[in-house]
Amino acid sequence: MSTYQNTLAFAQAQDGADPLHAFRDEFHFPQHDGWPVVYLTGNSLGLQPKAAADALKQELDDWARFGVEGHFQAKHPWLSYHEELTASAARLVGAKEEEVVVMNQLTSNLHFLLVSFFRPNGKRRKILTEQRPFPSDTYAFASQIAFHGGDPEVDLVEVQPRAGEHLLRTEDIIARINELGDELALVCFGGVNFYTGQAFDIPAITKAAHTVGAIAGFDLAHAAGNLKMELHAWNADFACWCSYKYLNSGPGSIAGAFVHERHLGKGLPLFAGWWGHDKKDRFKMERTFKPMPTAEAWQVSNAPVLSMAVHRVALEQFDRAGMDRLRAKSEQLTGYLAFIIDTVAKQTNTNLEVVTPMDPAQRGAQLSVLAHGKGRGLFDALTARGVIADWREPNVIRMAPVPMYNSFEDVYRFGSILKEALT
Predict the structure, then answer these.
(1) Which CATH number characterizes residue 410's domain?
(2) Per-residue pLDDT tens over the stretch 282-338
């Protein structure tokens, strides 16, 4: 969209032409002074789908009716519940069904995958990641290095932006990969950096890692449901993601994992559990572990049905909306937010620096803003006026107009509130 306007009429006209606008009515919005809040923090916790309550009630009713027999007689039998999520999850990240499993939570999945894919040997011991990934990733990498007898201060390497810049350049990431060369065991980046909102070039990073003999993995917490992904075609070795951000599946809900098909059935080391055992023989209760021939081999426990019930609602919404349409709207909606922020900054003579890339191809729905001279005070003023955004230390306000349920009118309302808070 080449021309934006800071008017209510423009915003409402865009909403009227939005083929996804009806999805907004499928979500519960918190209220502020009798009005829906301007909810711009779906990058932290997505809104609740209205269908979630009925989905949970179905499983609770089946539990009450059948007890343990719900594993076989429930409307959605619990024994194979996770299997009903696989096709949708695979479509979401651009994978084959056998490459994807819905299980556990994000950092748990990262650890389980690192057991298989971080295998330091000789001088090849280093993990390369972005500067300031989400702290949980840093903790996971450092603890895995220490577990293998390494020194996280030496073996965990972070690529730094150039002096005076907030963002990483792809050529600098690739140069660092090449520099580390045969010392590099694993490259593991976020799909989208949680702080800046920068989307990384997964195919380019993967190719560079493989060129020097390293493994390429990705934390897609801020990418799943946000960006169009093709993990199989991009040749990533592994990936993991959560479902409570853009995937709207509830706080602390179930997560997902991807393992490229070339690694399946190859005898990789992994931490074994009952639900990773070949399902044809699982109930023989044999002593020797026989892994599933799919990504399900990385499962250790049976399905947490109550959280999966909400996740199936969310995945069904994504199937109906389609990532192509969601991504197209996201580019327009986030572009409109960038325009509104710039317009209000000029009107109020305020330095609002968007540190997220301006190129839509290098970002998702999130914009991260440095409010020079305002900081936390501005964030608190927005909150008091009914804007739900997100503060990240030391000085960034993160805002994400989520295409599944946010509207152009939301963004226009945000601009009006922002101007009021600054004057």
Answers:
(1) 3.90.1150.10
(2) 888 888 999 999 999 999 999 999 999 999 999 999 999 999 999 999 999 999 999
Q: Average pLDDT for residues 262-286, to the nearest whole number?
A: 93
The last residue of a domain, from among 320, 349, 367:
320
Backbone phi and psi for residue 249, each to the nearest 5 degrees, phi listed first = -110, 10
> Distance (Å, rounded) from C-alpha 42 to C-alpha 245?
6
Q: Give the 3-state secondary structure of residue 229.
A: coil
Which domain-ending residue is among 320, 345, 363? 320
Q: How far from chain centre, in Å, is Cα 175?
A: 26
Residue type present at position 79: L
The arrangement of strands across the sheet holding 390-392 comes to 352-354, 367-371, 396-399, 390-392
C-alpha–C-alpha distance, residues 240 and 254, integer Å: 11
pLDDT of residue 260: 98
Residue 274: both structure tokens together: 């009952």
Number of domains observed in the structure of the chain: 2
Structure tokens at 217: 């993995």
385-422: buried (b, 16+ CB within 10 Å) or exposed (e) per residue? bbbbbbbeeeebbbbbbbbbbbbbbbbbbbbebbbebb
Q: Which of 137, 183, 133, 140 is nearest to 158 (CA)?
A: 133
Is the peptide bond between 394 and the residue preceding it cis, with omega within 30 degrees of 0? yes
**What pTM does this model have?**
0.96
| Residue 31 to residue 35: CA distance in whole angstroms | 5
Token pair listed for 260: 């490229």
CB 302 within 8 A of CB 275: yes
Give the count of beta carbons closer than 10 Å to the beta carbon of residue 175: 13
